[in-house]
Structures are given as structure tokens and as C-alpha cells.
Design brief:
alpha+beta; 3 helices; 52% helix; rod-shaped; membrane; MT1774/Rv1733c-like; Transmembrane protein; transmembrane
């Protein structure tokens, strides 16, 4: 199009305090709402970062408490490391991520579960596993996992609030479009009336 202004100029003309005589009152209201929502969404970034930091601190404390409860016990591997005995033989995949099924005894009770094991470990080998007071296997999260969870919490909160802001803008826009169409309808009806 020949006479079209560049996008930044067009956006600048839509600011609430524009002197553009063609800008309607509803245009100004919509511009104010968009400005407020964008400002609030940007101000929420440090708030969400603080929530993420608090989440990380809480998860780290939980991990430390879990690690403090752990006690090491010997466990006997039931299968070679990396093989899942519950999978169908035809689709059995060897996982080099080094885990194996093992059996261990705590306070006279026998437990079975999947435990971390060296990649070359074979059935019958003994590994040491951390268990809780009830004898169940403990798997405290590391700092990296806690950091990922905290970042996900902060980003998820910000995305949810930004999405709510976007929905608010869409709702106001839709309401103002209806108002503009009503004004147009009234003007067209007045125009269509025969002259007196």
C-alpha cells in the first residue's frame, strides 16, 4: 500500500494521549487498558522471580531433610544394569542410564525396587542404596532438578498471569467493538431517515 505509515508510527498514534482527531473515546480507553496490562505484566517479572527463588529454597530444604533421613543399606541386584525385566522380551531395551532392580532387607522386612547401579553391574552384585526409616528407597532431588522445578514454577506463574492479562485485553477489545458497532448502527439509521 502506497501511503501506509510504518508500524512503529501507527502504534505511536494509538497512544492514549494522542492528538489524532480521528481517535475515538473507545480507542483511548482500549489504549489505556493495553498500556496498563503490559505494564503490570512487565512488573510481574521480578515478583515471579521471587516466587521461583522461594520455591527453590523450599525444595532444597526438602531435599536436605530427605537426605538427612537416609541410611545406606546393601542391596543385591536381581538383573543386569540397564535391563527392565518387566518389559516384553521382544521389546526389551537396554538402558545405559545405569539402573537395575534390586532387593534389600531393613529390620527383617524385604524390599524390592529399581535402584541406581553402575553400567557394568550384573545380577548378584551388591550396591549401596539410601533408604528411609520405613526401608523404602529414598531419591532426594539434586540442586539441578530443584532449579528446573523452581524456574518452571516462576515461568508458569508469569505465563498464567500474562495470559489472564491477554484475555482481559481481548475482552475489553470485544466489548468496545460492540460499542463502536452500536454507534455505527445508530448513525446509519439516522442517515437512512428521510429528510423532514
Amino acid at each position: 500500500m502506497a501511503g501506509r505509515a510504518p508500524d512503529p508510527v501507527r502504534w505511536w498514534r494509538l497512544q492514549p494521549c494522542s492528538r489524532n482527531p480521528l481517535m475515538r473515546g473507545t480507542d483511548r480507553v482500549e489504549a489505556v487498558v493495553v498500556t496498563l496490562v503490559v505494564t503490570v505484566v512487565l512488573l510481574l517479572v521480578p515478583v515471579c522471580a521471587a516466587v521461583g527463588t522461594e520455591t527453590f529454597t523450599s525444595l532444597q530444604q526438602q531435599s536436605r531433610a530427605l537426605a538427612a533421613q537416609a541410611r545406606p543399606v546393601p542391596a543385591v541386584l536381581l538383573v543386569d544394569a540397564g535391563i527392565d525385566p518387566q518389559a516384553e522380551p521382544a521389546v526389551r531395551i537396554i538402558d545405559t542410564g545405569a539402573s537395575s532392580w534390586a532387593r534389600w532387607t531393613v529390620d527383617g522386612r524385604e524390599h524390592t525396587g529399581q535402584v541406581p547401579a553402575p553400567p557394568q553391574a550384573r545380577a548378584g552384585d551388591t550396591v549401596t542404596v539410601p533408604v528411609g526409616p520405613d526401608g523404602e528407597l529414598l531419591d532426594p532431588r539434586g540442586g539441578t532438578e530443584n532449579a528446573v522445578l523452581a524456574i518452571a514454577a516462576a515461568c508458569g506463574l508469569w505465563a498464567a498471569l500474562a495470559g489472564a492479562g491477554g484475555l482481559m485485553i481481548c475482552g475489553v477489545h470485544r466489548m468496545l467493538v460492540r460499542s463502536r458497532l452500536r454507534v455505527w448502527d445508530q448513525a446509519l439509521k439516522k442517515f437512512a431517515e428521510p429528510p423532514r
